[in-house]
Amino acid sequence: MVLTRSDVENALSGKGDFVKIDHLNRFLREADSMDIRKFILLKLAGIYEERNFYLDAAKHISAAADMAITYKEKIELYLRETELYIKIGKFDMADKAFTKAHLLGNTMERVETERKYFGFYENQAKQNDKSLQHRKTIELYEKMLSMNFSEDRKTEIKNKLMILYNKLGKIRDYNRVSNIRIETPKVHKEPEIEPGSFEDLGIRRF
Q1: Structural contact between residues 193 and 104, judged by C-beta atoms closer than 8 angstroms
Q2: Cα distance between residue 100 and residue 79, in whole Å
Q3: What are phi and psi of 49, to 5 degrees?
Q4: Nearest-angstrom CA–CA distance, 121 and 124
Q5: Calpha distance 46→90 (Å, rounded)
Q6: 70 - beta bridge partners?
Q7: CB 85 within 8 A of CB 97
Q8: Quick one: CA dihedral 11, 15, 20, 22, positive or negative?
Q9: What is the per-residue DSSP string for 29-71?
Q10: Residue 98's closest CA among 125, 73, 64, 75?
Q11: How do the pLDDT tens digits run along the chain, 206 residues long?
Q12: 107-131 and 71-87 helices cross at what angle (nearest 10)?
């Protein structure tokens, strides 16, 4: 019997999250098509994300992105993975996920992926500021200082970092940040990636 989306939805109806996870993992082992496997992976990711298990959610989204057929869907899923890693401070993993999305896009799509990437950091910074989680806020601002934000924004980030380090009595870090020179970001023009180079992977561009 071929497993369908309706089979999955019907089996999950009315069940609690942990029962759903158990069913979905079983279905994942039984699924015999890439489309159904991707559907199940995204179902699992959605449950994990709702329960704030962001690392598990990101891993399942990454696996689903690898199975996606179109460039557009791959980019969207890799960006979703990126955002989740930023939420939990896994910045190196966020960079890797973003790079996968960025390299798949054409010139206009790359501009948009970069805009979203910077937006993820901005949004997380606002959440950290509200929650007063100083350690997480410091880690985020240190990362943002190394990124290609505008000169004004980086100056603002630098000042906030100095305030936090001063508040926590971290004088050495305060002095280190105070000596950072803020410069106008450089614009890097990257070579265009030919979509045809991915054709042997079965990826279609729509």
Answers
A1: yes
A2: 9
A3: -65, -40
A4: 5
A5: 19
A6: 204
A7: yes
A8: negative
A9: HH--SHHHHHHHHHHHHHHHHHTT-HHHHHHHHHHHHHH--BH
A10: 75
A11: 688 899 999 999 989 999 999 999 999 998 889 999 999 999 999 999 999 999 999 999 999 999 999 999 999 999 999 999 999 999 999 999 999 999 999 999 999 999 999 999 999 999 988 888 889 999 999 999 999 888 999 999 999 999 999 999 999 999 999 999 887 766 545 444 444 444 443 334 44
A12: 20
Would you state the structure tokens that stand for residue 41, as one six-digit string? Answer: 């992976």
Query: Is the CB of residue 56 less than 8 Å from the CB of residue 48?
Result: yes
| 204: three-class secondary structure by DSSP | strand
Determine the Cα–Cα distance for residues 24 and 44; give it in Å rounded to an integer. Answer: 7
Question: 74 and 203 in contact (C-beta within 8 Å)?
Answer: yes
Taking the C-alpha atoms of residue 183 and residue 180, their distance in angstroms, rounded to an integer, is 10
8 Cα distance to chain centroid? 27
The residue assigned the tokens 């159904």 is 36
> What is the full DSSP assignment across 76-116?
HHHHHHHHHHHHTT-HHHHHHHHHHHHHHS-HHHHHHHHHH
> 70 phi and psi, to 5 degrees?
-95, 155
